[in-house]
């Protein structure tokens, strides 16, 4: 394992971890309120590692929904990762062994994807970097969940702390880091526009599942057209 690449991956994960701390903590508190034990909440973060999906799961559990509903909601909500992983293949191919890359990709999230793609523009991917980035981010999420689950009984409502602002703030910062030229700005703005447009016209239940995926496909296609014309 390349020590420098591993250290760089850990270093690049720090902003992600800082964003995960309040979100994972809030999830741990909500899981506690939903009747989950500390072990159950922590295990869920270990096995699932999808912030949005875990929050949806808690909401369904609190509403008395079936486990099948939780599973299907998470599958639909996280379909976007099939697009993320597909776009990473050209970068990883020839640099990271397929089996190892598949294993490390378990830690793929919106944030680790953005950070990794930003680095891969100028540096060749390595398994060591992926390990440092993805595993550190995952450990940060697990630790914050554990802390929230332990202290959940003493916190109560987390909304008054403004913890829900951490995720959009982190996404905004990551987006800014990814913008390199005019075409990037056009794709970013168009994806946001289509996402809002689809969400407005599509029924809420369906929009929550599909608007990001549809908007991503449209904006990515637009990006390809712009690149070919340039």
Mean pLDDT over the full residue set: 82
Calculate Rg over CA atoms: 18 Å
| Strand runs, count | 0
What overall geometry do the principal axes of the alpha carbons give? Answer: globular
Q: In words, what does this structure look like?
A:
This is Inner membrane protein YgaZ. Pfam families: AzlC. This protein is an all-alpha fold and 230 residues long. It has two domains: 3-178, no CATH class; 180-230, no CATH class. Helices cover 80% and strands 0% of the residues. It has helices at 3-33, 38-47, 51-62, 67-77, 80-92, 98-104, 110-120, 127-155, 166-178, 182-201, 204-229. 28% of the residues are buried.
């Amino acid at each position: 394992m390349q020590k420098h690449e591993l250290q760089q991956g850990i270093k690049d994960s720090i902003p992600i971890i800082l964003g995960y701390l309040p979100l994972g903590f809030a999830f741990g508190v909500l899981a506690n309120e939903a009747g989950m034990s500390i072990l159950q909440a922590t295990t869920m973060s270990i096995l699932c590692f999808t912030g949005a999906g875990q929050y949806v799961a808690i909401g369904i559990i609190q509403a008395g929904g079936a486990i099948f509903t939780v599973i299907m909601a998470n599958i639909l909500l996280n379909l976007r990762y099939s697009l993320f992983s597909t776009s990473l293949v050209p970068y990883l191919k020839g640099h990271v062994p397929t089996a190892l890359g598949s294993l490390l990709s378990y830690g793929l999230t919106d944030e680790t994807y953005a950070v990794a793609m930003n680095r891969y523009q100028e540096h060749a991917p390595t398994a060591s970097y992926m390990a440092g980035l993805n595993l550190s981010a995952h450990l940060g999420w697990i630790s914050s969940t554990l802390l929230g689950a332990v202290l959940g009984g003493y916190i109560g409502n987390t909304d008054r702390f403004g913890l829900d602002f951490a995720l959009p703030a982190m996404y905004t910062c990551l987006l800014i880091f990814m913008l390199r030229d005019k075409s990037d700005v056009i794709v970013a703005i168009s994806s946001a526009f289509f996402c809002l447009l689809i969400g407005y016209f599509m029924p809420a239940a369906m929009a929550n599942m599909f608007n990001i995926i549809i908007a991503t496909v449209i904006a990515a296609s637009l990006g390809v057209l712009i690149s070919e014309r340039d």
